[in-house]
Amino acid sequence: MMEFVLFLGLCFVLGGLAVASNPSPYYGVLGLVVAAVAGCGWLVSLGVSFVSLVLVMVYLGGMLVVFVYSVSLAADPY
User: Secretion signal: which residues (predicted)?
Assistant: First the structure.
């Protein structure tokens, strides 16, 4: 179990680095999803599943709306 928690922590850090270091919004949102899923798994392993559910609904929902907005702005030629 300890190895799984350490793996989730590593995925969380790598996902955060992927969000911060990618200029493309497509790869940035992939890192965001990886970090959010790893963070939720980490919270579930600690026994706070309700907070994990709130993290998925609020954080990922809000950030994916911002991602769709930024992609639509980047795709607009004018």
Answer: 1-20
Report pTM. Answer: 0.77
Q: Spell out the SS3 assignment of the chain.
A: CHHHHHHHHHHHHHHHHHHHHCCCHHHHHHHHHHHHHHHHHHHHHHCCHHHHHHHHHHHHHHHHHHHHHHHHHHHCCC
- Sign (positive or negative) of CA dihedral 5, 11, 14, 19: negative
Kindly report, residue by residue over 58-78, the tens digit of the pLDDT. 877 887 888 888 778 877 676
CA distance 46 to 12: 15
Full residue range of the structural domain in which residue 7 is found: 1-74
Structural domain tally of the chain? Answer: 1
d(CA 45, CA 64): 25
